[in-house]
Amino acid sequence: MRTITLINGDGIGPEICDAVMKIIKASGLEIDWDIQTAGAEVVEVEGTPLPERVIASIRKNKVALKAPVTTPIGKGFRSVNVQLRKDLDLYVNLRPCKNLPNVKTRFENVDLVVVRENTEDLYAGIEHMKDGDTAESIKIITRGASERICKFAFDYALKNNRHEVCVVTKANIMKLSDGLFLESYRKVAENYPQIKKREILVDNLCMQLVQDPTRFDVLVMPNLYGDIVSDLTAGLIGGLGVAQGANIGDDCAVFEPVHGSAPDIKGQNKANPTALLLSAVEMLRYIGENSCAEKIERALFKTLSQNIKTADLGGNATTTEFTQKVIENL
Length: 330
Ligand code: ATP
Description:
The model has no long low-confidence stretch (mean pLDDT 95). The chain contains eleven helices and twelve strands. The longest helix has 17 residues, at 143-159. It is globular and about 55 Å long. It has two domains: 1-105 and 240-330, Isopropylmalate Dehydrogenase; 106-236, Isopropylmalate Dehydrogenase (3-Layer(aba) Sandwich). Helix 1 crosses helix 9, helix 7 packs parallel to helix 8 and helix 10 crosses helix 11 (319-329). Strand 8 (164-169), helix 6 and strand 9 form a beta-alpha-beta unit. By secondary structure, the protein is an alpha/beta fold. Adenosine-5'-triphosphate (ATP) is lined by residues 12, 68, 70, 240-241, 259-262, 264-265, 271-272, 275, 312.
């Protein structure tokens, strides 16, 4: 039996984890979940929101499914999500973005993937006050990190029958930092004659995405643009309740939804488990459980097509009713 780390998070985390574990079990796949707690409540007991045992568990099991975790604000702790990505060198943030059946959105046929660099840029967290009235944040872009993320994007395109990899920067203004990212893309791109290339500035990308997102295929970009653009693309397919994600490195991978812990709906049986479920489906593909992944995805799509939806998608199903229906459709 495969052991997988499960970080059940806080806010709506435990509810949606429960739903996803039930669905995977009902699909017939036995997983030994190594449940690891992290976040605000853990601080009270262990003095840190991300204890070493969590990292050790992922290092050992190589794969984790992660619900949203809240980092206590103002107590000097670094974001759990950022720390996890750094400690495990999960340098890719992968956010596929595709329309779901019967989820009405502004555009049809959206099918794009945001590949976000996950370890540097303004997220390096190097900030200081220069004087009482001036704050400075340092944007770090290295050739090594830029080349490896661009290589990942092209390899992903090849493996998944994608046709184009478009690089997103603001290299006209940040000539050195974004310029280096662009230069790295161009160098890596030479090795992939089969894949179409395209270069776009991030502001122009945002405008075009809201005009017609079907113009795009694989998008690769530095950390901060990736954060913002992937929330925009989540909005194109129905919002945070359905947007999946993955953090991938050479040794380990952590699959997690784009959304946060949604404390406003915690414990009310309202949360949509779809984003975590789709993240789990990608996780199953990653570990080679393709047929199980297909089966769960089909059951989810059938449930949505039957108009069983949670409140965030305009429906009236509770988390438990939605989960039960997906299980019946398996
Ligand atoms: P964080 O700072 O932790 O990223 P946030 O406040 O930016 O969190 P979320 O916690 O993701 O954002 O939630 C934003 C809103 O979207 C919430 O008010 C919540 O109602 C809704 N939401 C997010 N995820 C879900 C979900 N899975 N199901 C239903 N509603 C959700």
